[in-house]
Amino acid sequence: MPPPRLIVGLGNPGSEYEETRHNVGFWFIDHLARQLQLRLAPQGKFFGRLARHGDLWLLQPATYMNLSGQAVAAVARFYRIAADETLIVHDDLDLPPGSIRLKQGGGNGGHNGLKDIQSRLATPDFWRLRLGIGHPGERSEVINYVLKPPRREERELIDPAIDRCLLAWPLLAVGDYAAAQRQLHLKTV
After folding, report:
1. Sequence-distant (≥ 6) Cβ neighbours of residue 133 within 8 angstroms
2. Which tens digit of pLDDT belongs to each residue from 82-138?
3. For the residues of the chain, what is the DSSP string, one character each?
4. What does the mean pLDDT of the chain come to?
5. Contacts of 26 (CB under 8 A, 6+ apart)
6. Are 7 and 87 in contact (CB under 8 A)?
7. Per the residue annotation, which of 22, 31, 111, 185 is the catalytic one?
8. Cα of 60 vs its chain's centroid, Å
């Protein structure tokens, strides 16, 4: 597989959303940017905060979650980045806190950010790094749940999951997704 050229962390802009479950994609990008010694800078024409590391771009869309595809499509089109060279990092309700899944393609699982990206790229064939945040148990509580900070015990599982993703970064960086999956999909408890 080709190595990623665009890594997008999904979240909502604004200080009121910084610590919410929906922003775990932003958290990952912040950590990766620090690890790579990069500074994300606002880029109006790309609708987000962007940093460059050689041929690799890191992006945090400045649109709200439901319009994430606007920023992803703008960067992908301008730099001619294919879907299979794109990795989207996002929260996942279907995985318990601390769980990680890496996969290419598939549905959007009701995730509005993924839905918009699929629509604007006209394909679901990008890579996804799914970070578990758990489910509130009631479908009617989902919006309220994702827009709240995780409980302390959940955060104590999510933060080490992000650290595990950073440990797998060298494998992801060269496009060795199979080895990264073996490392990331291990049970930790």
Report:
1. 21, 24, 91, 92, 93, 95, 97, 146, 150, 154, 158
2. 999 999 999 999 999 999 999 999 988 889 999 999 999 999 999 999 999 999 999
3. -PPPSEEEE----SGGGTTSGGGHHHHHHHHHHHHTT---EEEGGGTEEEEEETTEEEEEESS-GGGHHHHHHHHHHHTT--GGGEEEEEEETTS-TT-EEEEES---TT-HHHHHHHHHHT-S-SEEEEEE----SSGGGHHHHHTSPPPHHHHHHHHHHHHHHHHTHHHHHTT-HHHHHHHHTS---
4. 95
5. 9, 10, 11, 18, 60
6. yes
7. 22
8. 9
How far is residue 106's CA from residue 118's CA, in Å, rounded to a whole number? 10
Contact indicator for 89, 9 with CB cutoff of 8 Å:
yes
pTM tops 0.90, yes or no: yes
**Is residue 31 flagged as an active site residue?**
no
Residue 34 φ then ψ, to 5° = -60, -45
- 37, 50, 51, 128 from 34: Cα distances, Å: 5, 13, 11, 21
